[in-house]
Write a structure and sequence with these properties.
The chain is of the alpha/beta class. The chain is built from eleven helices and eight strands.
């Protein structure tokens, strides 16, 4: 299915602009954006006239409306989009409030990331009971333009993915920073430590993008019983997974408390 429908994005911050860039590249039938200042996103070839300052005018002109304002701003946002599919990528805003904001029963709660600009985002979503199969098809093709996507069966998992995959690079960057800092502590010049770790994570991402799941890669290294195995078992035995899980739990709870 092509993007043969009109799309409007309300909000043009980092995430809204990234999704807009991905969709513009995929050539939708029409793409509008709305923000209070009328600021045009830095997307090659994006027409200035496609940026509105009135969210209601955007809602009336589009088949699908994407809500992408900060959660605090969502408290005062109101549009009449009762006959439209409304997709939210706002952290923490529940389905019931999405219907209150938009007057539409056909609402989808989703999360994406700024990696959408490069077509590398993971965008899971959860649909309300009123969402149709055609709505689902449109949501899939829309988020496939941003990277990869899945429909979830548990609304609460959107908060988990807001914490885990929304803040690119987030937790992955924390791990990379710790490794670079360790190399520097061993006397490696900072620019070399930085370059080495960046290349490591680039190659790791490429390798893990296909083939077995990450845990299988870890087990393969442990079974090989080389130098890496000693480091991995030391991390495991000292609660690495548990400490990381604690961080994810804290971030997930923060996404539930933000609105």
């Amino acid at each position: 299915m092509a993007l043969d429908f009109s799309i409007g994005i309300i909000g043009s911050g980092m995430l809204g602009a990234a999704i807009a860039e991905a969709l513009w590249r995929a050539e939708p039938r029409s793409l509008l954006m709305a923000n209070r200042s009328g600021t045009v996103p830095g997307i090659d070839g994006f027409p200035p006239q496609n940026v509105l300052t009135d969210p209601q005018a955007l809602a009336e002109a589009c088949d699908v409306v994407i809500l992408c304002v900060p959660p605090a701003a969502a408290r005062d946002l109101r549009i009449d989009a009762k006959d439209k599919l409304v997709i939210s990528v706002m952290a923490g805003v529940p389905l019931a409030d999405l219907t209150r904001i938009s007057a539409s029963p056909r609402v989808i709660r989703a999360m994406s990331s700024p990696a959408a600009a490069k077509g590398l985002a993971y965008s899971p979503w959860f649909a309300s009971d009123a969402v149709t199969e055609d709505d689902r098809a449109r949501t899939r093709v829309l988020f496939e333009a941003c990277g990869q996507t899945d429909e979830l069966t548990d609304d609460a998992q959107i908060d988990l993915f807001t914490a885990m995959t929304g803040p690119v690079p987030g937790f992955v960057a924390a791990c990379a920073a710790a490794m670079a800092r360790h190399a520097e502590d061993q006397g490696v010049p900072p620019e070399i430590a930085d370059r080495a770790v960046r290349q490591l994570f680039l190659s790791a991402g490429e390798i893990m993008a296909e083939g077995p799941p990450p845990q299988a890669h870890v087990q393969e290294m442990i079974d090989y019983a080389g130098t890496t195995a000693k480091g991995l078992t030391t991390l495991r035995d000292n609660g690495f997974a548990e400490r990381l899980a604690e961080g994810l739990v804290a971030a997930t709870q923060a996404s539930r408390d933000i609105y």
